[in-house]
Specification:
338 residues; alpha/beta; Nucleotidyltransferase, domain 5; Serine Threonine Protein Phosphatase 5, Tetratricopeptide repeat; five-stranded mixed beta sheet; 5 strands; globular; binds zinc ion
Amino acid sequence: MSLLEIKNPDDAWIIHREEVDTLQDGICDIYVVLDAISRHCLEMETSKDLPSSSQILELIKKSCSKANTTPKKIYILKKDPLAEVVQAVCSELKITFEVATKKDLDPFISDFTNSFKQFKSGKNEVLDKNDDVSQEEIDAFIPETYGPCPCASGKKYRFCCQKAFKDITFAMCEAQDGHLDKALFYMKQAEDKIGLTAEILCRYAITWSFFDRKKTQEFLEKALVINPNHPRTNYILGIESVEKKDYQSAITYYQKAIDNYPIEDKFHLNETYNNLGTAYYKLKNYQMTKESWEKALVLLPSDKMVANNLFQCIYTNPVVPKELRTISPFIEKFIKKK
Ligand SMILES: [Zn+2]
């Protein structure tokens, strides 16, 4: 039975995870049990860390008594961090278990997620309102809660920088607006939450970059002491090198950032490949420019800027050797859409 064949009320339920940022406990997981047919929420469980298998067992049992039935099947998102736990609980309860893709589940959970979104404020709403930002870019920008942290600590985002996400975002905005005191206030809050990590030191460096470049340099050096491979620090050092017109150093820094960003972090990888390509372009290394920009486009196909750059500076640029002025086969499908 596939999701599309669900016809009877007790055919299938979906276990779905949302997260919410609470004042009291910070970010919490909310697991809900949804009836696939009525799309009603039967039960939910909120917990600071991922619920345990006994909590999930309890959640399903409560849903069964509320619905007065046991479902034939329970679906969960393939990438859900609790997929294995739910599978084990289902087998204990003799309920068929299956994972599904986001695309398959969306029609069944969209009502719930839409109403849920209205309760939430913050990054989603801000980004949703911005018409210039595609859904693809929003998805790429926000790290997966249980995916690897973009700071490359090796920890999951949830247990690393996510706790400081809001404070860091506020700090960056205040710094950009020229409010040093407010920016430092938010940075201190972020620091109190996750400690003086390479990521925090790097963010202090970015904060200071609007006010005092010497301080920026000091903080970048401190960040490298804690983690010489910290991707964002290397990325910023690449930008600093470009400003000094030292493109060779910039390439080294950008490459190090690329080597260390988690492969899932398409947003930052796209950004860094973009800059890497530009540094190569300054050195008239068109082969590497093309390679870098094409990789950037594959990572984020909606990136119009890099597509334009490829056209103007490579594919149609008479200065570029003729054999390089071709669209690589793997890139064609992204270019033709334009
Ligand atoms: Zn982190």
